[in-house]
Amino acid sequence: MRFGLKLSTAILLACAGAPAAAQGSDAYARAWEAAERADPNAAICRDKSGDEAIAGCTAAIQSGKLSGIGLAIVYFGRGFEYQGQENTARAIADYGEAIRLDREKVGAFFNRGALYFLQEDYTRAIADYDEVIRINPREASAFRTRGWAKRRLGKTAEGDADLAQACKLDSEYCEK
After folding, report:
1. Per residue in 73-114, pLDDT tens?
2. Pick the CATH number of 7-14+23-119 from 3.90.79.10, 1.10.287.3510, 1.10.260.40, 1.25.40.10
3. Cβ atoms 116, 122 nearer than 8 A
């Protein structure tokens, strides 16, 4: 975990690992391997962190050698690094590119939704969590955060329903 992250960001980043697994770790690993074969800078993007990873991701993106899902995962990787550096605008932009290239990129929707939530842009956060739930209807953490966002918008009944669904899917999300 990066130094300097706000606690709420750290919690949301920790939750973001679950949706990535939902996409299928084998397919994700194969996509990374294909991207690395197409451009060695993708390996730097994947294996390093911070500014070094961002530089590798940027070089891979600018090389023109990647497309489709391979390019989407590199944008996601760079977005994740920007998020770790609390560069919210760049992280949101890169997650948006990952989503544009791969509408099933649940991790990008999840992380971008987390950033919108932290910016108190609850309407956009809800829209991204709607997509996470569309892709993986068993993603308890998406129901939980969407519930909080709805409650912050004054939609208490809808928010409570999402929080109840999160609890139903995963007892860790039940209020104690």
Report:
1. 999 999 999 999 999 999 999 999 999 999 888 999 999 999
2. 1.25.40.10
3. yes
